[in-house]
Each structure stands twice: as C-alpha cells, then as structure tokens.
Amino acid sequence: MWLLLTLLATTPLSEAQALEEGGDDAGAIALLQAAVTADPRWAMGRVELGRLQLKQGVAEAALVHLDIARSLAPENPRAHYLFALAADEAGHRNESRRALEVALTLREGYADAQVRLASVLSAEGDHRGAANVLKPYV
Predict the structure, then answer these.
(1) CB proximity list for 99: less than 8 A, separation 6 or greater
(2) One-letter-per-residue 3-state SS of the chain
(3) Which of 26, 46, 81, 98 could form a disulfide with 69 if both were Cys (CB 3.0 to 4.6 A apart)?
(4) Could you report the per-residue pLDDT of 46-105, keeping only the tens digit for each?
(5) 101: Cβ–Cβ under 8 A, 6 or more apart, which residues?
(6) Cα(36)–Cα(41) distance, rounded to whole angstroms?
(7) What's the rounded Cα separation, in Å, for the pair 10 and 98?
C-alpha cells in the first residue's frame, strides 16, 4: 500500500527535484520539458524549468519559460524574480528591473529581489535608488 501511495504521489516536479538533487540537471530539464509540452499551462513546471535552465547558463531559453509562467501565474513573485535574473543574465537590464519591481509589489520584503534590484539600479547609475531599496537593511 505504501508503495502504491508513493507511486501515486510522484509528480514530474518531485521527480525533477530528485534528479537535480542527484546531480542530473539535464535529466530534470528533459523531464520538465516533456511535462510542460504535455501541459503547456503548468506554470510551476515552467518556473522550475526556467530556474534549471538559468542554473545551466541558458538564460535565453529560461526567459521563454519564465515569461510564459509570469503570464499564467502573474501573482507568483518567484516567477517574476527568476525572470529578472534570466533577463539580467541575457543583458536585458530594463526588463530585469521591471520584473524585480513587480516581484517586490507582490511580496513586500522579498530580500533577494531587493538586493538584486539595488544591484541593477546601481549598474544603471541610480545609486540613490539602490540605497533606497536597501534602506531596510542598513
């Protein structure tokens, strides 16, 4: 009975996480790619696929899935944050800044997004804006 429940509880996301934990990022990406192909409206699958692609240094591919995830789940601050990371990595700093601002609107006090936004603003020469973003931490 336990084995049957375990098999029923296995999802593409949990399988992908197990593959990643085992060091098989490529296998996790392939599994999630197949899952989002089968269910194109699965926002969480696209978020995790984008995160893994970003981890592998494939920012442009990550942008595609993360942008779709943002449209499917616009209330998900993590989708916006990860999109911002991929956009910055791909050299799209304005898109990165806007996505970080959305993430912070959705989740006030999102520390990772605040630090990243401060970095983007500083790189744009807006040091006062960067300092204001980091004000809660100083």
Answers:
(1) 70, 80, 81, 83, 84, 87
(2) CHHHHHHHHCCHHHHHHHHHHCCCHHHHHHHHHHHHHHCCCCHHHHHHHHHHHHHCCCHHHHHHHHHHHHHHCCCCHHHHHHHHHHHHHCCCHHHHHHHHHHHHHHCCCCHHHHHHHHHHHHHCCCHHHHHHHHHHHC
(3) 46
(4) 999 999 999 999 999 999 999 999 999 999 999 999 999 999 999 999 999 999 999 999
(5) 117
(6) 7
(7) 36
What are 106's two structure tokens? 């959705």
